[in-house]
Input
Amino acid sequence: MSLADSNFPFQQMWYTDSVSDRPNLLFIMSDDHAAHAISAYGSKINSTPNLDRIAASGMRLDSAFCTNSICAPSRAAILTGTYNHINGVTTLDTPLDNSLWNIAKELQSAGYTTGMIGKWHLGHGPGADPSGFDVWRVLPGQGHYHNPVMLEPEGRIVERGGYVTDLITDDCIDFLDDHGDGPFALFCHHKAPHRSWEPAPRHFTKYDDVEIPEPHTFRDDLVGRAEVIQAVRMRMMDLDPIVDLKAVVPEGLSEDDEIAWRYQRYIKDYLRVVDAIDENVGRLLDHLAAKGIADNTVVMYTSDQGFFLGDHGWFDKRLMYEESLTMPLLIQYPEKIEAGSTSDDIVTNVDFAPTMLELLGVDSPDGLQGRSFVPLLEGETPDDWPTSMYYRYWMHRDGSHLCPAHYGVRTTTHKLICYYNDPLDQPGANGPADPIEWELFDLVADPYEVDNVIDQAVYAEVQAELVAELTRLQAAVDDEPFPGAAPRGS
Ligand code: CA
Output
């Protein structure tokens, strides 16, 4: 006899209490949305009233970091609760093996209806399609902003008319209408605001009559930083005028003026694309409220990593600098999280899966590398909460950005970064091996990271401590140092 056939009230109650009353999860993730383009985080360049609603109803986490600041690897870390050298997605080109454990599979077996709508970017085909999801409809690869094609199970292709952020939200609303009785776990993954920042028509002219302030480090000359950092091609002058800026550079501008002009073109389209995200997050929040399930739904907003919004003169991400390392993370769930609260404690994307599972009352399996930060959400910092995190970016000087491979440690006060070259990664592609270079930043004295103090004697003791912490963390997560990148001074 199945529970559904049972007229025994006790069993029906048991069923109701243990499954149907479990909280739902709405996990909204955008792509490349920097925290400093959210007004709840004190943005100086835009306003995001709907994202701010989540912060006002719940918690804003101020030290949420990605363990590898690039799209597919961060997505893999979130879904699997493991670092990239464990889940295998170290670069953009590695699909996520869909036979691995992921949080959707765990939730599905706990009785949840699971959905994945929007950007997947972890490969396609039998070994890489989304697994653990009852419903999925995803963009192929990066997908398109306008009139996108989307993919469904069994290779079905759906042609859509409209703007991608609106369409993904439409599909999420359909999912809520179909499965809102719960429990459900819906992953709403926006393509926006990824390059090349194409706004919805309704936002084409927004910001036309204003000048967006340049960031504090916009004219950073990068003096004193690692040579491989000075060679990175993420400056305003590296943006493609036609593709990225959708304009022809006016004639007669000095280089300084052209850099300023490029920034305005870049940042305004970025913010227009963010505006559509904000509006659509508002639609989802309103829909949860209209269905009467807002209080029983954990709502999270994050992005797969941060982004440089002209900071240090750059666009893009990849590097371990703060603007790229920091993920926005807003979570509302009135049952456990005080409205308008904040946390400074360090959490990473590897911690997301165990946290979501605990919030939903589902046990985490063995083998996850992250730690649930539910205590932080409840306003308590455990005595043994980590005060450092480990980071590694693997794609050495690939493609057009020329970012070096690097790993490092960020503590609550300092950051140590080791840039290494692995010529074995890309034999012959980049010429002779680059030297190993190190950077050290004092985040208290130098929050903008413009003063690399690696060679200053006064920081020798701090440096030794950070090297020891980096070595400890690397071993703790089962990673290994790059051969030849022995710690300085050892
Ligand atoms: Ca991304």
Notes: The pocket of calcium ion is lined by residues 31-32, 71, 304-305 (CB under 6 Å).
